[in-house]
Specification:
single chain; 198 residues; Deoxyribonuclease I, Chain A; five-stranded mixed beta sheet; globular; Endonuclease/exonuclease/phosphatase domain-containing protein
């Protein structure tokens, strides 16, 4: 487990096979797990939440200004036959979670969104459904460059994001401090570190 590698961290995680174990060699593409890792010195500020299916992990972070809902998400890729339905179901689940917490929490959703939100990229039903959710919850995000390169190395896209409703005044107070590297990523997903300071 993670704590075996570093005793100074704690985590909350879910896997797609948490209810019915699947051998790693049998795991279908796009059906991994999600997790949130934090330093043990802030254990007293964090409460793992039960909200979300196996593709969504939530924690609550106590903050002197306003509590923060932190969500790790792994949205379905477009590789399955039912990808459109699966994607919309996950977005609906995120929408429900956000509606539950939006009046009492700031919200940060991070992870593999499996859609490129760059303005110049072609649109599709999945992207439009995601954009509708982002607009309804009034979330913000930054386009920072490619975060995924396919296995052949010939197609790049930006599919990993942090969606949030953190206001600039909170960032300026140093209560939440997102730190993202300005370098191109290796062909792996979820390469950005998001650092929360309480």
């Amino acid at each position: 487990m993670i704590s075996d590698i570093n005793c100074n961290v704690n985590f909350a995680a879910k896997g797609v096979d948490m209810n019915e174990p699947i051998l790693p060699v049998s795991m279908p593409r796009g059906y991994g797990g999600v997790g949130i890792i934090w330093n043990t010195n802030i254990n007293h500020l964090i409460r793992p939440l039960d909200d979300g299916s196996e593709k969504i992990q939530c924690i609550e972070l106590e903050n002197s200004v306003r509590r923060i809902l932190v969500v790790s998400v792994y949205l379905p890729s477009n590789g399955s036959k039912n990808h459109q339905i699966e994607y919309q179901e996950c977005i609906d689940e995120l929408h429900e979670i956000c509606q539950k917490y939006i009046s009492t929490h700031h919200i940060i959703i991070g992870g593999d969104i499996n859609e490129d939100l760059n303005a110049g990229k072609p649109t599709n039903q999945r992207k439009e459904y995601l954009k509708k959710f982002i607009n309804e919850i009034e979330l913000k995000f930054d386009n920072i460059g490619n975060t995924f390169i396919n296995s052949k190395g010939c197609e790049c896209s930006e599919i990993d994001y942090f969606l949030h409703n953190i206001t600039p005044d909170i960032l300026e107070e140093g209560k939440v401090n997102p730190q993202m590297p300005n370098q191109r990523l290796r062909p792996l997903s979820n390469q950005y570190e998001y650092k929360l300071e309480a």
